[in-house]
Amino acid sequence: MPKLAPAAILLTLALPLYSADVHVRVDPTVKTGIEGTTEFPTIQNALDHHPFATPNADGSAGRIIIEITPGTYHERIIVTQNHENITLIGLGKRPEDVVITNSLNAKQAGGTFLTSTVDIEASGFEADNITFENSAGNTGQAVAVTDRGDRSVFKHCRFLGHQDTLYADFGRQYYVDSYIEGGVDFIFGNASAVFEHDELHSNGPGYLTAQSRTAADQPTGFIFVSSQVTATLDPEAHKMIYLGRPWRPYSRVIFIHTELPAEISPEGWSKWRPDDPPPTAFYAESGSNGPGASPTTRVQWSHQLTATEAAQFLPTAFLAGADHWNPIAEAIKLP
């Protein structure tokens, strides 16, 4: 092998060393957790001390992939703003095999926004094959996941709670092939979020959504595409569930080709309070089906969209943004 000239050696040393995504492992049987290792006993320990990825050869940011062994993790975790491009992967056969759980309601914590089992503050977060739970039950506001990060993707995940299960609060978020359960306002916040091929399960009478857009020109809203709403209600109670109610004046929620159960109120949508004037919210459906689909009985201030009108709210259009983000392509990359 020929020897390199001194100039060539210097050039070689100056070239950036690109690495693959960083993989770390979480397993309760691990006895270490020292900064700089790649095996940790808790998820938060891994988030606090994982090695940072270097940029990819194309200049894009590297990704931290945290692989979690099956088990129930009784911990609260936070993904801070400086920990971008985190991926949590459950290594079980089903999302039920990896459960991140805590029990805390607003009264105990001193406010709804202090109850989250998982708090995501960084961009580029992804999760696959995991259950997120707040097990406080029907005891008031109790959040399983708070997401304030841009370009989030959740695939094959479960979100379990009762009131305020999922706080989708900021940025662009994509939920696919997932299950979300709650009873009152259990998907709430002001993110631009699309839920595709998901099951929304109501475990009590109440409201599926409480979206909080504050101005008509905000690009936010909750969009449900090719999904299914199910319910477990006492048939003798004669109580119903609603598609949503406006937490803020310009709340926006749209259901596209979604199956609705008989437990959906014929009116479909609700005011925040019964004596409120007709809201300025934008509530709409397009191609609803199932026994709860009843366009002729919906409140007068809701809308029925044509397929052409609804196209702008599909994930690749609604979530594209100035950077042309493709959430479907990102989700396909996940296992």
Mean model confidence by pLDDT: 92
Q: How many structural domains are formed by the residues?
A: 2
Per CATH, the class of the largest domain reads: Mainly Beta
Give the helix level as a range of percent: 10-25%
Shape: globular
Contiguous uncertain segments of 5+ residues: 6-18
Structural class: mainly beta
Order of the strands making up the biggest sheet: 2-1-3-6-9-12-15-18-22-25-26-27
Measured between the Cα atoms of the first and last residue, the distance is 42 Å
Instruction: Write out the CATH superfamily name of the largest domain.
Output: Single-stranded right-handed beta-helix, Pectin lyase-like
Main beta sheet: strand number and arrangement? 12 strands, parallel
Number of helices: 6
Please state roughly what percent of the residues sit in beta strands, choosing from under 5%, 5-15%, 15-25%, 25-35%, 35-45% or over 45%. Answer: 25-35%
Mind telling me the C-alpha Rg?
A: 22 Å
Under the CATH scheme, the architecture of the largest domain is 3 Solenoid
At CATH level 3, the topology of the largest domain is Pectate Lyase C-like
Number of strands: 27
